[in-house]
């Protein structure tokens, strides 16, 4: 399923949503111009490596730099499909959450969901040496918040049933729980599969955080 749009128009300009999208593409551009030789070190430094984070936390629990990867990794991506998919979801669902929370609270909500998503991934896979990157955890929080605030919204969704591609109006109350169920299924599988390559538990943790926290942040 691929969401195309929802049926809830923005009441104000989604400036923070647009700014987050621009920031993500800016940092992705920085990744592209680095070249392969420098990119690995860049990702390892600014991405979140669970094993490295835990080791540094044990050594320097009161250093600001220890916690920086919990936020900086939200602005890094592993390829064009990764960033385009994330930014498309943020564009569709972020504006309505920004409407409800206001600019500043939406930004804080977004970052906090991302941090909690990262924490969930660390807890589930603390020994991983693979960098966790991407805005998926924070955007999962946006999805969780959307389900809480707009359960009756309808999502125009492209269904890839080859050779036809019907577009169905699916209620958010069905679309988003189904999305979350897929994350849970894949996350459970990842517990028994080395090198899954996707931080499923960051998606799960972010979604749960957004669902539970959005009313606290709501204007």
UniProtKB/TrEMBL annotation:
One Pfam family from the record: Rhomboid
GO molecular function, one term: peptidase activity
Domain of life: Bacteria
Membrane topology: Multi-pass membrane protein
Start and end residues of each Peptidase S54 rhomboid domain: 68-216
First-level EC class: hydrolase
The keyword Iron is annotated on this UniProt entry: no
Localization terms from the record: Membrane
InterPro entries found in the cross-reference section: Peptidase_S54_rhomboid_dom, Rhomboid-like_sf, Rhomboid_protease_S54
Transmembrane segments: 12-29, 74-94, 106-124, 130-149, 161-182, 188-214
The protein's Enzyme Commission number: 3.4.21.-
Protein name: Rhomboid family intramembrane serine protease
Species in which this protein is naturally found: Anaeroselena agilis
């Amino acid at each position: 399923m691929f969401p195309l749009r929802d049926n809830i128009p923005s009441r104000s300009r989604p400036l923070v949503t647009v700014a987050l999208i621009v920031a993500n593409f800016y940092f992705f551009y920085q990744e592209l111009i680095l070249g392969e030789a420098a990119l690995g070190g860049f990702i390892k430094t600014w991405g979140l490596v669970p094993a490295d984070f835990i080791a540094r936390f044990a050594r320097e629990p009161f250093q600001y730099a220890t916690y920086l990867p919990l936020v900086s990794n939200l602005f890094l991506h592993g390829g064009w499909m990764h960033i385009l998919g994330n930014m498309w979801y943020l564009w569709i669902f972020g504006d309505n959450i920004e409407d409800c929370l206001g600019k500043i609270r939406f930004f804080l909500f977004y970052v906090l969901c991302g941090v909690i998503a990262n924490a969930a991934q660390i807890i589930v896979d603390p020994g991983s040496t693979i960098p966790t990157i991407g805005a998926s955890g924070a955007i999962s929080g946006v999805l969780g918040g959307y389900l809480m605030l707009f359960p009756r919204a309808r999502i125009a969704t492209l269904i890839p049933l080859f050779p036809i591609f019907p577009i169905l109006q699916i209620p958010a109350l069905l679309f988003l729980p189904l999305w979350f169920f897929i994350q849970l299924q894949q996350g459970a599988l990842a517990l028994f599969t080395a090198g899954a390559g996707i931080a499923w538990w960051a998606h799960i943790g972010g979604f749960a955080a957004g669902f539970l926290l959005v009313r606290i942040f709501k204007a």
